[in-house]
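User: Hi! I have a protein structure encoded as tokens and I'd like to know what sequence might fold into it. I'm fairly new to this, so please keep things simple.
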């Protein structure tokens, strides 16, 4: 079986522009030895919740990519959006500590799904493709003091579902089924397949 080509090889010296302010996505691309630029998407509304999570992450990832397309001359633009879903409810980034407490109490002891939508836009050809990945995450049973201690670290405040699995939030998780990178915010296997 032929060896899988890396993301960097698949880009084949073409410029990648990450349409995201997420340090986690940047860290994943750096780990994958990808050379990229960051352009912060502007003028799109992430808060408009679409009726189902797949539509939501795909549409927000497209909006992020489109908003950056006007800022660049060439290259491949990567837009991504990650959301946490429990019983059909989309749990975005918490507005405040009370919101984070509510999210984490809901997630305690339960299985939820994490969806990440990816859009790739080739500025030179105008070609746009979008896809998504999904990972199931089983949380440990948490008591309120544990949750409050975690919120006090500040880590949950800029993350969908109010936790970061790549940080201290890892202690909240019993196990996952699927891609860890997807839960962090950029499913590398899916990205590789899309570039291929």
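Assistant: Happy to help. Inverse folding works backwards from shape to sequence: for each of the 196 positions I chose a residue that suits the local structure. Here it is:
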């Amino acid at each position: 079986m032929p060896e899988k080509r890396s993301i960097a090889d698949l880009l084949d010296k073409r410029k990648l522009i990450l349409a995201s302010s997420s340090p986690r996505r940047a860290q994943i691309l750096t780990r994958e030895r990808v050379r990229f630029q960051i352009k912060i998407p502007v003028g799109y509304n992430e808060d408009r919740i679409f009726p189902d999570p797949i539509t939501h992450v795909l549409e927000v990832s497209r909006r992020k990519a489109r908003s950056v397309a006007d800022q660049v001359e060439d290259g491949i633009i990567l837009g991504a959006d990650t959301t946490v879903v429990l019983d059909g409810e989309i749990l975005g980034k918490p507005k405040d500590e009370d919101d984070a407490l509510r999210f984490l109490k809901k997630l305690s002891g339960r299985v939820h799904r994490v969806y990440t939508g990816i859009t790739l836009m080739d500025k030179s050809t105008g070609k746009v493709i979008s896809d998504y990945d999904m990972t199931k995450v089983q949380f440990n049973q948490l008591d309120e003091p544990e949750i409050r201690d975690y919120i006090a670290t500040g880590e949950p405040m800029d993350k969908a579902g109010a936790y970061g699995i790549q940080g201290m939030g890892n202690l909240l998780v019993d196990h996952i089924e699927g891609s860890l990178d997807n839960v962090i915010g950029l499913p590398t296997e899916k990205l590789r397949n899309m570039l291929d």
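A useful reference point when you look it over: The CA atoms of residues 156 and 162 lie 4 Å apart. Feel free to ask if any position seems puzzling.
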